[in-house]
Amino acid sequence: MPLRVYNTLKKDYEIFSPINESQVGIYMCGMTVQDRPHLGHMRTFLFGDVLRRYLEYKGFEITYIQNFTDIDDKIIEKSRKEGIDWRALGDKNENEYLESAQKLNIKPATYYPRATQFVEEIIEMVQLLIEKGFAYESGGSVYFEVSKFKGYGKLSGKNLEDLKESFRIESDPGKKNPFDFALWKAQKEGEPYWYSPWGKGRPGWHIECSVMSAHFLGQPFDIHMGGQDLIFPHHEDEIAQAEAAHNVQFVRYWIHSAPMLLKGEKMSKSTGLYFAAKELLEQYSPESIRLFILQKHYRSPAEYMQEYLDEAERALYRIKNFLESTPSIENGVVNENYVEKFQRFMDDDLNTPAAVSLIFDLIREGNQKLANGEIPTEEKSTLLLLLEVLGFNISNLSTKKPEVDLIKELMEVILDVRQLLRKNKHFQLADEIREKLEQLGFKIKDTKEGSVFEF
RNA sequence: GGCGACGUAGCCAAGUGGCCUAAGGCGGCGGUUUGCAAAACCGCUAUUCCCCGGUUCGAGUCCGGGCGUCGCCUCCA
Q1: Domain presence at residue A279
Q2: For the segment A246-258, what is each residue's pLDDT rounded down to a tens digit?
Q3: Residue nearest to nucleotide B4 (CA to C1')
């Protein structure tokens, strides 16, 4: 069965068919590392992870590129304000992203290119655009001349006339047209810089993605993903420069995920309205966050409230409970009926909420079998397959604590009881417990502060 | 102002012309289990899909209008 996805470029569903038969290139527009990753980012990247896993499940080999844009106005501004080096700021946020992604069981990208590693190639591309007449230099900066690229607006559905009317921001005096965008920015006093044919400066936003995606995946490549908020201007501009420079289509399928909302507003770094991924992961299990996100379709804006994660946590508990109440199995036979439904839902523009509903259907059927004294091996092995493809970390889906923790907690209980016995002068029983524990290898010491043990 | 998305049970949320007398989760209610509880499990929980018209043999699903919410229009995942 073919996968059908919504392609922003066509504003319609399309059957996905990659350039190469068995190999798919995906470019996920990653973070500009000016700030900490929040739940909204995680929604986008977690969805990318599910698309990737599903394509892998369907037998494709995936090259997955996710960039870090590590030089830009905001990074410079913010590092100044915080009084730290711009590279240190970027590294910090990048690491925080990587740690959160790992906890969320998001598969690592094949490569994580950074803008600053591609300055040479960026300069080459800017030169090419000048040579081809699509870009011009002005005061040490280089701008892409939007009116020269006739397809401008094809992704976002905007046209230059409409844009002119809606123009709200004061234009840079060096630009011919207010919508011309910087390919290269001249250095201002005290800013980081690289040498270029136009003097000291740094890459503009947008150009790094065109360069790095083509570097790893070629042009055209299959899938470019990111948040809907990147459609304009970021992705529109990527298309313009890439297609102007190389004269071939840039990307075949553009897949955009909807924003995470908080109190009815988009969760955003700039408004300060966001929940950092790191803190959320300290409060909630990664699987409950994944479940919460997958229970909504990726193209619908999703409101965030703490109680939604509480709900997901409770729902997750049902999954854990079922997995634990059934014997472990290996290579069990799966229920083809369920697998077929699962594929049908996922093939329909990644309908993860429908796919997740199958998880609970399986659990209900499995529990019914358990109640009748049967062992639901088929339900369990099917469930494990679905959980795997949806990216749940199966080994985390256990309510069982690590044994070390468990032993400590058990000992605490035993020692508390024993303390009570000693207090009430039941020394014989207390001593007996101590001896029995010693036989098991636990050495008990009764100190003034209470009892401690060694193992 | 321009472009776009959406409005389904108490809440979250699938469903895009007939298997919908509308999935799934949370909550609520009833039951099984239990010394009692908790937990767990099972069952029930929208005659109806924002409102008003229209198309059609047939509409939550298509079209027009209205009301409301949200996103984008060079900070953005």
Answers
A1: no
A2: 999 999 999 999 9
A3: A157
